[in-house]
Specification:
single chain; 321 residues; 13 strands; 34% helix; elongated; disordered C terminus; binds adenosine-5'-triphosphate
């Protein structure tokens, strides 16, 4: 089932000479249970897009459907969305954890009793049961973040908008929050994740959409996108003796041949960029020296992202070879 579809969204701010098109024809789709990482440099149009999806600002053109309903025309659509935007501002600091859950549940149309029951279940799932009656202002940052996510889920939305879920959290709290995000998705909620922490995006997302200057420049399954950027660069390490230098081990004859083949000699390893088949000529030349390891360079999402956002609009897709 499709939890979110955003179709051809446009939004401009200002008028006349001051008019600025922040979002220019964005299409997004997220299935139930899927995590889509929505990435882009500062000012690319992420927040504007998310606010249109959340029904907070009206698109100039295009449409949003949250499991079929339009949040700009059908208020029931908003009962299908949960949002944790800009940290934990969706919490009341003087209220306790359970009071927040109940309050926001009722605000979104639940009966108080149902909201309380659902709230207790979420506190248990999030490991916060013993903090149920603690005021939010006395919770740690990590607990507040977990509670903010719980509050966004209390009315059991189909779509969760999640902004920077692990920002400012320590390693352990980050791991817990990431685990929770995975669980929420596994339970069938669609998640639109925005973050500048690309390692988190890489870990959590099924697919990635990259926005740049108001337009989507890439949208692919995360691992497939990363693979597309895997160049043909190989790194080869020889098993050398403790005091042996690579150049000595190779000797002048081999060094000559290797550089003729296009290999780069570094103090403790070789790199080779080119056809995988030509790699055999290089290996032949190394025979019978013992090889410790050989592997193809694997980029991460950060490298892919930087390449995508630093490429001119029209060549962004052709560069992905
Ligand atoms: P960041 O990663 O920095 O949060 P973003 O991708 O969320 O960036 P947006 O907040 O959507 O970017 O902003 C996109 C563009 O629209 C920016 O150039 C911004 O200056 C502009 N913009 C955003 N809100 C307004 C507004 N209310 N009035 C005028 N311009 C705006």
């Amino acid at each position: 089932a499709i939890a979110l579809s955003a179709i051809d969204l446009h939004k401009a701010y200002g008028r006349g000479k001051g008019r600025f098109e922040a979002v220019r024809g964005v299409n997004l789709e997220i299935a139930a249970g899927e995590v889509l990482a929505f990435l882009g440099p500062n000012g690319a149009g992420k927040t504007t897009t998310i606010k249109m999806i959340a029904g907070l600002i009206r698109p100039d053109r295009g449409a949003v459907r949250i499991s079929g309903l339009d949040p700009h025309r059908q208020p029931q659509a908003l009962a299908r969305v949960g949002a944790v935007l800009e940290g934990n501002r969706n919490l009341y600091w003087r209220l306790t954890a359970i009071e927040n859950l109940e309050y926001f549940g009722v605000l979104r149309g639940m009966a108080a009793k149902t909201a309380r029951r659902q709230g207790r279940e979420l506190l248990a799932q999030f490991g916060l049961t013993d903090k149920a009656t603690t005021p939010v202002q006395k919770l740690s940052r990590g607990m507040q973040q977990k509670l903010a996510i719980a509050v966004a889920l209390v009315h059991q939305p189909r779509l969760l908008l999640l902004d920077e879920p692990t920002l400012g959290l320590d390693v352990e709290a980050s791991q817990t929050v990431k685990g929770l995000v995975r669980t929420i998705a596994a339970q069938g909620c669609a998640i639109l994740l925005t973050t500048h922490q690309l390692d988190v995006a890489e870990e959590l997302s099924d697919r990635v959409a990259v926005i740049r200057q108001g337009q989507i420049v890439a949208m692919e399954p995360t691992q497939a996108l990363i693979r597309q950027f895997a160049g043909n660069t190989y790194r080869l390490v020889l098993a050398l003796g403790p005091d042996q230098r690579l150049e000595e081990a190779l000797g002048p004859d081999r060094l000559g041949k290797l550089s003729y083949l296009g290999a780069q000699i570094h103090p403790d390893h070789l790199t080779y960029s080119g056809d995988a088949v030509d790699l055999y000529a290089l290996l032949d030349c190394l025979k019978p020296l013992p090889i410790d390891s050989i592997h193809r360079h694997q980029p991460d999402l950060t490298e892919v992202f930087l390449t995508l956002v630093n490429t001119a609009d029209d060549s962004a897709t052709s560069l992905r070879r």
